[in-house]
Design brief:
217 residues, alpha/beta, five-stranded parallel beta sheet, 8 helices, 22% strand, globular
């Protein structure tokens, strides 16, 4: 199966060069040019790796990754930037980056870094829950290596509940972590994804009326 990459780079020529190279190396690449488009892609799709420029229109790559990490997104991320000061390097890692590559980009080095990152992350990729395995990168739920029918947002919801470690998570916190800031969230839409998960976890997924939800593991 091809590894899927989300590439956020506002230099169209560089973005096209990187995309063409990575696709020749058998990656599947979605390329976007601004953070808002990247948010839309990240919330709707499963990715194995993010490649993020830092200096971007509207907000920086640092701000974007910080928001994604706050939402529970653990997808491995590499910053690609022309910045070379130590402060930027430290900030990148503090907001949740896994690696850092300076421009001008050496494409062979980029390929090696992506492969190394995916190998490292694959070692801690799955969490066992009852009879299921949860892929923390793709947010997919599997049983005996067969993918269960849950949506991307249901997968994000499941990750938040798993990370709560048997504690109750309020409905407001779930909505804040599952939906991006420019998406609409409601109790009704939250219940849709809860229903998807209850199909597999039944009474282990508990509704604490007036408070929130809890997954008993």
């Amino acid at each position: 199966m091809q590894s899927k990459i989300l590439l956020l780079e506002d230099d169209h020529a560089l973005s096209e060069t990187m995309k063409d190279f990575l696709e020749e190396e058998s990656f599947s690449v979605d390329s976007v040019y601004d953070p808002y488009s990247a948010y839309d892609k990240a919330y709707k799709n499963h990715y194995d790796c993010y490649l993020l420029d830092v200096n971007l229109p509207y907000e920086s790559g640092f701000d974007m990754l910080k928001k994604l990490r706050a939402s529970g997104d653990t997808t491995p991320a590499i910053f690609i930037t022309s910045r070379n000061d130590k402060g930027s390097l430290v900030e990148g890692y503090e907001v949740g980056a896994d690696d850092y590559l300076k421009k001008p980009v050496d494409l062979d080095e980029l390929h090696c870094r992506i492969e190394a990152l995916l190998r490292r992350k694959s070692r801690v990729r799955f969490i066992n829950i009852k009879d299921y395995q949860f892929d923390i990168h793709s947010k997919q739920l599997l049983k005996d290596n067969v993918e269960m029918d849950i949506s991307t947002k249901a997968g994000r919801l499941l990750q938040v509940l798993i990370e709560a470690n048997n504690s109750v998570v309020s409905s407001s916190e779930l909505k804040e972590k599952i939906w991006s800031s420019h998406e609409g969230a409601s109790e009704g839409s939250l219940r849709v994804y809860i229903t998807q998960l209850k199909k597999y976890f039944g009474d282990d997924l508990q509704n604490i009326r007036g408070v929130g939800y809890c997954l008993k593991r």
